């Protein structure tokens, strides 16, 4: 049984999805509100982390 590898997004891709700037994405990462990892010095954000962030935000807004 194989599982699909997680989709890793770049900071610009996350910026586009969340419609925020670069500084905001890094602020979310720095404050542990958005999970990320470094791959050879490049920051990558799992697609699931972006979806979880949006889901949490929707819960807070309700």
How is this structure best described in words?
- The protein has 62 residues and is α+β, with helices and mostly antiparallel strands.
- Helices cover 52% and strands 16% of the residues.
- The protein has helices at residues 11-18, 22-30, 47-61; strands at 8-9, 37-39, 42-46.
- Strands 1-3-2 form a three-stranded antiparallel β-sheet.
- The model has no long low-confidence stretch (mean pLDDT 92).
Lateral strand order in the biggest sheet: 1-3-2
Distance from N terminus to C terminus (CA atoms, Å) equals 39 Å
Beta-strand percentage range: 15-25%
Task: Assign the structural class, choosing from mainly alpha, mainly beta, alpha/beta, alpha+beta, or little secondary structure.
Answer: alpha+beta
Number of helices: 3
Uncertain regions: pLDDT < 50 for 5+ in a row? Answer: none
Q: Tell me the total number of β-strands.
A: 3
Percent of residues in helical segments? 40-55%
Biggest sheet architecture: 3 strands, antiparallel
Helix and strand pattern: EHHEEH
What is the CA-atom radius of gyration, in angstroms? 12 Å
Principal-axis shape: globular
**Mean pLDDT reading:** 92
């Amino acid at each position: 049984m194989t599982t699909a590898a997680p989709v890793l997004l770049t900071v610009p891709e996350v910026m586009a999805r969340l419609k925020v700037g670069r500084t905001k994405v890094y602020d979310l990462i720095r404050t542990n509100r958005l999970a990320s990892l470094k791959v050879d010095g490049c920051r990558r954000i799992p697609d699931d982390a972006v979806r979880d962030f949006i889901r949490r935000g929707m819960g807070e807004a309700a």
